[in-house]
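> forwarded from #structure-qc
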């Protein structure tokens, strides 16, 4: 089987497991991870899968088996990673505006921790002092990413400690004799220009000499993947070359060579994912021909939330005459996946597939309108495995307490 699942195979999965349905192709994840490790094979670099993109436990187990590490955004993601078999020293937890007791729980799990506020850094110092190495997430004040909602490094972002507050950080390091093991920055998502990462490195190079215990530099993630025909992705080979060049020109003065970390999430799992839907109704109006499918933004919110583009194909009629359609969902809200999109002729009952559905698809789904969450299937070694069953009515009542 190639790195892309065929239309006929996707139809067979839709018939077998029903729709709407998320399908993930394991070998595509492996291929993406190999791009990273091959490009950086001559450098001391580690990759942490940013698992907020997709946390199905079977996907986590597979990524662990590839040798990747994992990056977590909550303590529960860290617990899932442990459950999936990641050892604690391969789990990175970068907190964001959380209560200190969550950081304390992370310490009890023995995982790697980044702290993103002066307040929690002081609490950490008061509680642990030098006894537990810790990292600091800095905000580099760099604007990058495909959408303001996914840009995290600019000067109005909530993420990280602003670099212009570095003296306050250093005061806390001195006050509590903190062991700062890594400096972390993350500028956003969908970053095509590798010079954005180089610019982040240059900012960190000014700070590196101020931290005597430093071992790692974490440049975050945000690698771009192609969503549209003709789209490019982040040039990983070019990135590896420029990172290597930057460190060759700026060795750690008087200190040990620093290991570089990246946190790819979407890059690893976006293209592995397919979202299969079935056409319920075709509605012809003066403004548009609406294709209503058996899903909505309760299952795939990215088009409505980020104005994100997902390529949509009619896999039931691949040779049909191209026509213009607006693809909409069955939610009782404005719920548009694609407006005025060219798709091969669509008929009621046809299967439509949304590509690049592996990242932030199921992960951001909900039971809005009291509709069921879809099933998930993992295709591995040419075998399709159901890895999450579709919701049933009892799931809507679960955790509710009737009086």
């Amino acid at each position: 089987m190639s790195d892309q699942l065929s239309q006929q195979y996707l139809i067979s999965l839709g018939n077998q497991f029903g729709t709407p349905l998320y399908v993930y192709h394991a070998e595509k994840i492996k291929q993406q991870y190999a791009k990273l490790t091959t490009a950086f094979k001559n450098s001391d670099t580690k990759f942490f899968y940013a698992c907020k993109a997709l946390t199905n436990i079977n996907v986590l187990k597979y990524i662990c088996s590839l040798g990747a590490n994992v990056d977590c955004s909550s303590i529960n993601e860290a617990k899932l990673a442990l459950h999936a078999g990641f050892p604690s020293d391969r789990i990175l937890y970068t907190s964001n505006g959380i209560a200190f007791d969550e950081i304390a729980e992370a310490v009890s799990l023995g995982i790697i921790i980044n702290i993103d506020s002066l307040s929690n850094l002081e609490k950490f110092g008061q509680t642990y002092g030098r006894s537990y190495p810790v990292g600091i997430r800095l905000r580099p004040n760099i604007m990058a990413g495909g959408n303001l909602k996914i840009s995290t490094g600019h000067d109005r972002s909530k993420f990280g400690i602003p670099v212009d507050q570095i003296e306050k950080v250093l005061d806390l390091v001195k006050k509590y004799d903190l062991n700062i093991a890594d400096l972390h920055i993350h500028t956003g998502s969908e970053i095509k220009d590798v010079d954005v990462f180089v610019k982040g490195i240059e900012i960190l190079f000014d700070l590196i000499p101020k931290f005597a215990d430093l071992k790692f530099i974490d440049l975050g993630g945000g690698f771009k993947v192609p969503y549209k025909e003709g789209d490019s992705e982040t040039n990983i080979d070019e990135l590896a070359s420029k990172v290597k060049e930057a460190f060759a020109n700026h060795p750690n003065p008087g200190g040990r060579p620093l290991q570089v970390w990246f946190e790819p999430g979407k890059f690893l799992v976006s293209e592995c994912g397919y979202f299969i839907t079935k056409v319920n109704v075709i509605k012809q109006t003066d403004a548009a021909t609406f294709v209503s499918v058996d899903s909505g933004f309760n299952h795939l919110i990215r088009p409505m939330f980020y104005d994100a583009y997902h390529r949509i194909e009619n896999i039931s009629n691949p040779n049909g005459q191209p026509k213009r359609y607006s693809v909409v969902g069955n939610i009782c809200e404005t719920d548009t996946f694609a407006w005025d999109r060219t798709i091969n002729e669509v008929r009621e009952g046809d299967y439509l597939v949304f590509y690049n559905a592996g990242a932030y698809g199921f992960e951001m789904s909900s039971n809005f309108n009291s509709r069921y969450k879809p099933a998930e299937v993992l295709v591995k070694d040419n075998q399709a495995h159901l890895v999450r069953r579709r919701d049933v009515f009892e799931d809507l009542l679960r955790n509710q307490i009737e009086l």
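QC bot note: The radius of gyration is 23 Å. The longest helix spans residues 26-39.
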